[in-house]
Amino acid sequence: MLIFDADDTLWENNVIFERVIDEFLEWMTHPELDRAGVRAVLDGIEAANALTLGYGSKVFLHSLRECVARLRGRAATAEESARIAGWATAFAGDRVELMPGVAETLAELARRHELLLLTKGDTEEQQRKVTASGLTRHFREVHIVAEKNVATYEELVRAYDLVPGSTWMIGNSPKSDILPARSAGLNAVFIPHDHTWVLEHDELDPADEKVLRLPAFGELLHHF
Known about the structure:
The protein is 45% helix and 11% strand. It has a six-stranded parallel beta sheet with strand order 3-2-1-4-5-6, sandwiched between helices. The protein has eight helices and six strands. By secondary structure, the protein is α/β, with parallel strands linked by helices.
């Protein structure tokens, strides 16, 4: 069984958030903080909101408004709120940009193995992206969850009667894809992405032989 992450593994995602953040940092000047300082405040707000509100563009825009309020020492004005709301268009639409090699690689892997898709975030938003990807037919099931932690992977093992030693989690996030899967006894494939969200970063054990590191998605065909 091969279990796949979606955002920034199958299609581009965080780069869209980073483009909005760049615009936000250009706009959100502060008398005492430079861009890095404002970004650090935003990162802290996002980390806190992820724990209580979850993930996705709606939570992200909420975090931008909260960042304005914290840095300005007051609630965002109607004009400021309207500007932030305008960034919602960056996340709208019914198209996603697949990562190179994904379509053909998944098609071949689906002929050799059973595949599952595991993604976290807002259910409606993630389902829209899954549908837009055109990849659904390759997966036995699609799972959209609020969080990807050890319990999530243990539940998949129980639900599908998986053998952890022959099950692989494939993704770009050390925090959500690799480390919790390994803690649940699964193998993992780490495919790094240049724009992985900073809150998904974590350290991997370079001596862990159960983690396969690949430079590109298409390389999976040489191993599976």
